[in-house]
Specification:
Radius of gyration of chain A: 18 Å
Keywords (chain B): Kinase, Membrane, Transferase, Transmembrane, Transmembrane helix, Two-component regulatory system
GO molecular function (chain B): kinase activity
Oligomer: heterodimer
Radius of gyration of chain B: 36 Å
Keywords (chain A): DNA-binding, Phosphoprotein
CATH superfamily of the largest domain in chain A: Response regulator
Largest sheet of chain A: 5 strands, parallel
Structural class of chain A: alpha/beta
Strand content of chain B: 5-15%
CATH topology of the largest domain in chain A: Rossmann fold
Number of helices of chain A: 9
Helix content of chain B: 55-70%
Distance between the termini of chain B: 36 Å
CATH class of the largest domain in chain A: Alpha Beta
Protein name (chain B): Signal transduction histidine kinase
Order of helices and strands of chain A: EHEHEHEHEHHHHH
InterPro entries (chain B): DUF5931 (IPR045975), HATPase_C_sf (IPR036890), HATPase_dom (IPR003594), Sensor_HK_TwoCompSys (IPR050482)
Distance between the termini of chain A: 50 Å
Strand order of the largest sheet of chain B: 2-4-5-7-6
Largest sheet of chain B: 5 strands, mixed
Helix content of chain A: 55-70%
Structural class of chain B: alpha+beta
Number of strands of chain A: 5
Order of helices and strands of chain B: HHHHHHHHEHEEHEEHHEE
CATH architecture of the largest domain in chain A: 3-Layer(aba) Sandwich
Number of helices of chain B: 12
Shape of chain B: elongated
Largest interface: A-B, 36 and 41 residues
Chain lengths: 220, 377
């Protein structure tokens, strides 16, 4: 595979050009560059990127809205979020909306290029910070779901013990290779565990949204 | 819109209420004068006395309206003049009128200073003024009728109650003001955070990124930019300012740990606040800080902090990739009487009713896990 088709969405012109140049130098194909979320949603179908590198804080619409719009217009697209501030709730919401990767803008260039490659290959890109957020979200859902919807179909999603163990190690800064070594698992298995933690959260989010839409629809 | 009231602004309605009371009670004094004047010993002197009361009512209304004049001179003068009027009253009315059970000339008007003292200084001052005026009133009458005694008791109660309510109002007002100031500070911080995100953070991240492959001085500048970027990010992503002097308000552990985040220390936290009693939160953060210091000293490289809120307990894990140490070395050190950082951390956690688990393998770094149980409130 020679290069990934990438679209860069960022409102900061210097940053946008810098990222586009870095990607081009690394042999990727920058198919579109946008400064606004609505514009990105409009052009994504025509530009046909594999990966969208998305700044989480855009001037016009929220990161969650951009991700929903992008995925509606081009379901197979993968979203790698970048954030300058590491704003926590925003990152978590974006992941629940379907982003599969997250990096701070301060990440090194090699780290960024590796993240683009892995996002294109369908692997989740977790920072330790994101793993901490996801762990926290599962605990929050479990605490909120206790008593209320226990045992019903839309009960809070749960992590297996192994998934929790893996996610904790990611949050403590260990690489997949180190985790695989410590737990005596294959690299691929560790990756699958991480992917499952995201998948369950995104599925739960979609179920919640659908239920909300149905309730609203029936009420209206 | 935030409007921060001036200090003392919460007393203004109370002082207005006192002025209104004085005017209304003066009106009643006039009614009593017109009804009973023909039975007084010196009706014209009574008229003059009511005139003095009217003048004093206006003086106090204007005087107390200004916070700068609400001090002791006016309060003492207020009490003194009303005492003087009370002392003059028996002569003006004459013994027969008093003995016949007519109300004394100032009737309820004499409570004015009691209310003023109560509003200015709370229950205690209200009580003192009520006792002075009550004693003067009862002693100058010569005969103590049950209704006169009731009047004195009611005045005393008014002094206590108004004083109490005045204090409550002022305290509530001050709390409101602190809350408004806190809100304003939080808004300002959010505004700053947005601005910093839009400009400074982006540029610093860019400088660090593009400069990272340069050698020498430029590379060093890029590294410095990266450090500042991490420090600034930690600063603006922290929770709001902690109100000073609030020992029972739970603190967010995330905000306390935020100050340790840097280019080399990564902080992983939940998206929702991790609230702990302030003393516990500070001790836990200090223990984590000690573990990080140790990691920086011996580990030398990067460190990672993970905060987990399990509901019944809060766990903070600190990991570094330093040289580590062989198992058993900690116990060995303790046995030799060398109480190092590890023991200090364990001590802090034991004081909180929690545990500290420290594990290390040579060449694979050190992991410290601090767990504190959450007491049910």
């Amino acid at each position: 595979m020679s290069g990934v088709r990438v679209m860069v969405v960022d409102d900061h012109p210097m940053w946008r050009q810098g990222v586009a140049r870095d990607l081009a130098e690394a042999g990727h194909q920058v198919v579109a560059v946008c400064g606004e979320g609505r514009q990105a949603i409009r052009v994504v179908a025509a530009a046909r990127p594999d990966v969208v590198v998305l700044d989480l804080q855009l001037p016009d619409i929220s990161g969650v809205e951009v991700i929903r719009g992008l995925r509606a217009a081009r379901p197979e697209v993968r979203v790698l979020m970048l954030s300058a501030s590491g704003e926590q709730q925003g990152v978590l919401d974006a992941v629940k909306a379907g982003a599969t990767g997250y990096l701070l803008k301060s990440a090194a260039l090699a780290e960024f290029l590796e993240a683009v490659r892995r996002t294109a290959a369908g692997e989740p890109v977790f920072t330790p910070g994101l793993a901490g957020l996801v762990l926290g979200e599962y605990r929050r859902l479990a605490a909120a779901g206790q008593g209320a919807a226990a045992g019903t179909a839309d009960a809070a999603p749960r992590l297996t013990d192994r998934e929790t163990e893996v996610l904790r190690l990611v949050a403590k800064g260990m690489s997949y290779r180190q985790i695989a070594e410590r737990l005596g698992l294959s690299h691929r298995t560790v990756q699958n565990h991480v992917q499952n933690t995201l998948g369950k959260l995104q599925l739960h989010n979609r179920v919640e949204l659908t239920r909300y839409a149905i309730e609203r629809g029936l009420d209206d | 819109m935030t409007h921060v009231p001036a200090p003392g602004a919460f007393e203004v309605p109370l002082w207005r209420a006192v002025a209104v009371f004085r005017v209304a009670s003066l009106a009643y004094v006039c009614v009593v004068l017109i009804r009973d004047a023909d039975r007084y010993a010196h009706p014209f002197a009574a008229g003059a006395l009511v005139l003095v009361m009217a003048v004093w009512t206006s003086v106090t209304a204007v005087g107390y309206a200004n916070p700068a004049r609400r001090g002791w001179p006016l309060l003492l003068a207020d009490l003194g003049i009303v005492v003087a009027i009370l002392v003059a009253t028996p002569w003006v009315m004459g013994r027969p009128a008093l003995a016949a059970g007519l109300p004394t000339l100032p009737v309820a008007w004499l409570s004015g200073p009691v209310l003023a003292w109560a509003v200015s200084g709370g229950r205690r001052r209200g009580t003192i003024a009520a006792l002075v005026l009550g004693a003067t009133d009862l002693s100058t009458r010569g005969v103590v009728t049950p209704s006169a005694f009731n009047g004195a008791i009611l005045m005393l109660l008014a002094g206590v109650v108004v004083g109490h309510v005045a204090r409550l109002t002022v305290t509530a007002g001050e709390r409101l003001q602190r809350a408004i100031e806190l809100e304003a500070a939080t808004r300002e911080r959010e505004r700053l955070a947005r601005d910093i995100h839009d400009s400074v953070l982006q540029v610093l991240a860019l400088v660090q990124r593009r400069g990272a492959r340069l050698d020498g001085e430029a590379g060093e500048l890029a590294r410095l930019a990266g450090e500042q970027e991490a420090a600034l990010r930690a600063l603006i992503s922290g929770a709001g300012p902690v109100p000073a002097g609030a020992p029972d308000v739970p603190e967010d552990l995330r905000a306390l740990l935020g100050r340790y985040a840097s280019a080399t220390v990564s902080l992983s936290v939940p998206a929702t606040p991790v609230s702990l009693p302030p003393a516990v939160a500070r001790e836990l953060a200090a223990a984590a800080g000690a573990a990080l210091d140790n990691a920086a000293r011996h580990g030398g490289g990067r460190a990672w902090v993970l905060v987990e809120d399990e509901g019944s307990a809060v766990t903070v894990s600190i990991r570094d990739e330093g040289p580590g140490f062989p198992p058993g070395r900690l116990d060995q050190a303790a046995a030799q009487g060398r109480l190092g950082v590890a023991q200090a951390i364990r001590g802090r956690l034991a004081d909180l009713g929690g545990t500290a688990r420290i594990s290390s393998t040579p060449d694979a770094g050190t992991e410290v896990e601090l767990t504190v149980p959450r007491r049910q409130a």
